[in-house]
Amino acid sequence: MDVLQGIGVSSGVAVAKALVISDDQLKIGSHTVAGTAVEAEKQKLQVAIAASSEEVRELRDQTSRHLGKETGAIFDFHLGLLNDPELIRTFINLINSQNYSAEYAVYRALRDYAKIFTDHSDAYFRDRVKDIYDIERRLLSKLTGAERLRIGELTEPVILIASDLTPSQTASLDKTMVRGIAIESGGKTSHTAIIASSLGIPAVVGVDGIVHEVRTGDIIIINGHEGKVTVDPDPLTIDEARILAERQMRHASELEQLRDQPARTKDGADITLMANIEFPHEVDQALQKGALGIGLYRTEFLYLGHEKSPTEDDHYAAYTEVVRRLAGKPVVIRTLDLGADKSTPHLDLPAESNPFLGRRSIRLCLANQDMFKVQLRAILRASVHGDVRIMFPMICNMMELRQAKMVLKDTMEDLDEEGIAYNRYIRVGMMIEVPSTALMPKPYIRDSDFVSIGSNDLIQYTLAVDRGNQHVASLFTGAHPAVIRLIRRVQRAGKAEAKNVSLCGEMGGDPDYTMLLVGLGLRTLSITPNNIPEIKQLIRQITVKQAEKVANKTLKLEHAHHILNLLHDEMRRYHPDYYRDDVSKLAHYSQEA
Ligand code: PEP
Ligand code: MG
User: Fold this and answer.
1) How far is the CA of 298 from the centre of ligand 2 (A)?
2) For a designed S-S bond to 301, which of 86, 242, 278, 593 qualifies (C-beta 3.0 to 4.6 A apart)?
3) What phi and psi values does residue 184 have, to the nearest 5 degrees?
4) Terminal-residue alpha carbon distance, the chain
């Protein structure tokens, strides 16, 4: 039995047989052809390009219908590449000048092309390599007549193992058969990860050497929450995982009954549970899970996966779709948090040696005010249709907050001049997610209508731990006493100014932290939709008094792992059937200790 560690990008536990997708499933036939066959090869190529384009178009439309337009638009890149005149010319030149077979010309040209992307300093371009391989595979399957991977036509449940899965392969997965995905490459921002989590399939990326460790037919346990893949588990471990998966499903269906119940503590305090989303279509799932609104809409995903920047109308269409789906419930639209790990080529961002400390997020918007205004105009236009609020990310100093508000005011004046309607009383808030604002939150809160604590970045910047780096993952914890004190500070300042303070980082969706956060005084949490029922159930089993006691106890402790142990034990007292306990938290403790 081997346990491989990767990065969990979509949670859940599953046990199934492995289906290993090897890279050499499509072999190139002849490399060259006789001079008399050159014309026929070129014709074959044209037919293959047309058929592939048709397939991709269908896939795009299908994906758009099921997962939303933004996700479907990922395939526009494939279409663009398939029909890129320069690339087609390269294929043709290779056939003409070298007598290459159509398939070898495609293979050679696309491999050279992929190399440019692989060597690129920008992670976005490196991520696009798999799109190029996807196109290569599609074209080759047309040209060689080889059977394309039929992962859409599986007859038994599997866990897919691959060095990589392309976005189109992932989007065409049959959710009822594919119980999990584990791949060698990828990061949290790859399209494969985005699509896997939209589909709700447990997924782990960045699992070193997995295609060599696993053979098709091996039994695999995937734990998408922990980022763990167990290969050839012993019968006891399989039983445990099956029990865990079953409990998880039973528990999820029990929790469904809570959907219309309030997240109210036993002593009557209401906690507002909102949802975090990246795409408009996720609103429905959020509402289904009982969200009272959207507390964080990460709008930068409008830029990722597209070939060019969205227009004002693209923004507007996305925001009005969210507002329409919410039917009166509020949405906090966060302005673009681009840069660092969320990069996109059309912005042409320069390479930086410390991109998380570089020109990202609000800094990028303030440096590109035309781009910023396009988004602000769209948000303001959408504000007449429902309860829309604006939130600025990554504010580090008062100047940034003032400048951001000034650009907003300018945009309002532009709209006034053009006679375009908007809500001039729109609520404007900011994220508190860097220590400089969390340490002295008062002036920021005074100048905002509300604030939201971004615990993901707050932990990253307070503890100097890259949130996306698996080598320092065990140091990344919200249980660090310094982080807890910063949260308390912000909450207290909000209370003194009578302004709403919410928390929208991952801590809010982890039951271990619920008593602490409620005990510190937080009354609004914005979390991943799937976590809402769990957190609600726990809230309904505690009192504010108990939570305050827990918070006070943690404030006396100095070590993160002591705090985490305490929080976990307290949570288990009130929530004894919490399913994740058996595996994930215990593993986490051993790393912490
Ligand atoms: C955060 O930093 O906690 C947050 C919610 O924002 P993001 O995860 O998008 O950086
Ligand atoms: Mg953040």
Assistant:
1) 10
2) 278
3) -75, -40
4) 24
Instruction: Kindly name the residue from 191, 281, 306, 575 that is annotated as catalytic.
Output: 191
Local confidence band at 63 (pLDDT 50, 70, 90 cut-offs): confident
- Both tokens assigned to 229: 């893949």
Rg of the chain, C-alpha, whole Å: 25
Residue 565 near residue 589 (C-beta atoms within 8 A) = yes
pLDDT more than 90, % of the chain: 53
Q: Confirm whether 504 is a catalytic residue.
A: yes
- pLDDT greater than 90 at residue 337: yes
Q: Which atom of ligand 1 is nearest to the CA of 298?
A: 9
Residue type, 248: Q
> Residue 543 pLDDT > 50, yes or no?
yes
Domain span(s) for CATH 3.50.30.10 in the chain: 2-21+150-233
With a Cβ cut-off of 6 Å, ligand 1 is lined by 296, 298, 337, 433, 454-457, 504-505
pLDDT digits (tens, 9 = 90+) for 216-238: 889 999 998 788 999 999 999 99
pTM, two decimals, is 0.73
User: What are the C-alpha distances in Å from 367 to residues 310, 360, 393?
Assistant: 18, 10, 14
- Residue 583's pLDDT band, with cuts at 50, 70 and 90, is very low
Choice among 504, 561, 575, 588 that is catalytic: 504
Which residue has the CA at smallest separation from atom 3 of ligand 1? 454
Q: Is the pLDDT of residue 170 over 50?
A: yes
- Mean pLDDT rounded to a whole number for the chain: 87
Residue 301 alpha carbon to ligand 1 centre in Å: 13
Atom of ligand 1 nearest to the CA of 337: 9
Tell me which residue has its CA closest to atom 8 in ligand 1. Answer: 456
In ligand 1, the atom with minimum distance to the C-alpha of 276 is: 5
Q: Would you say residue 201 has pLDDT above 70? A: yes
* Ligand 2 centroid from CA 93, angstroms: 48
Residue intervals of the chain classified under CATH 1.10.274.10 are 35-144
| Ligand 1 probe mutation, 197, 304, 431, most atoms within 8 A of CB | 431
Residue 23 alpha carbon to ligand 2 centre in Å: 36
Question: Greater confidence, 469 or 67?
Answer: 67
Architecture of domain 35-144: Orthogonal Bundle (1.10)
| Topology adopted by domain 2-21+150-233 | Glucose Oxidase; domain 1 (3.50.30)
Report the alpha-carbon distance of residue 373 to residue 266 in Å, rounded.
46
Q: Which ligand is nearest to the CA of 478?
A: 1
Ligand nearest to the CA of 334: 1
Classify the C-alpha dihedral 237-239-243-246 as positive or negative. positive
Signed CA dihedral, 386, 320, 337, 349: sign only: negative
Q: Whose CA is closest to atom 6 on ligand 1?
A: 454
Summarize pLDDT for 358-392 with one digit per residue, the tens: 999 999 999 999 999 999 999 999 999 999 999 99
pLDDT at 461 over 80: yes
- The band of 590, judged by pLDDT with boundaries at 50, 70 and 90, is very low
Residue 240 corresponds to which tokens in the numbers above? 């445990």
- Locate CATH 3.20.20.60 in the chain: 267-548
Taking a 5 Å cut-off on Cβ, the residues next to ion ligand 2 are 433, 454, 457
Highest mean pLDDT range out of 74-88, 166-180, 268-282, 302-316?
Answer: 268-282
CA of 346 to the centre of ligand 1 (A): 23
What contacts 444, CB < 8 A, 6 or more positions away?
Answer: 395, 398, 401, 430, 432, 437, 451
Return the residue matching tokens 């006034």.
416
Active-site residue flag, 212: no
